[in-house]
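fyi for ur records
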Amino acid sequence: SGLIVGDMDEEVSKIYLALEPTIEVISGMDENSLLLTHHPLIFSPLKKLDFSDVTARTLRLAVKKNIAIVATHTNYDKTHLNEFFATKTIGFE
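which gave:
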């Protein structure tokens, strides 16, 4: 989680929110934007950028459009979701 693509020091013109950073989401975004997602685009290390793969195509489009992607998956789970699940869903105090 954290910055997946982009530069934390670069200014953005718009901020978008999505559960997942899909190619469809990025296709609909304006250039020079930031996409905040729950799930990261990359789950395991990339060994190549084969554009027949949807993850590689999504990365290529994000770079072409200067779209930064930040995922909050692990951060949110550790700070909020696990506590909510433990206390509200299964009743641990």
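The chain has a mean pLDDT of 85. thats all i got for now
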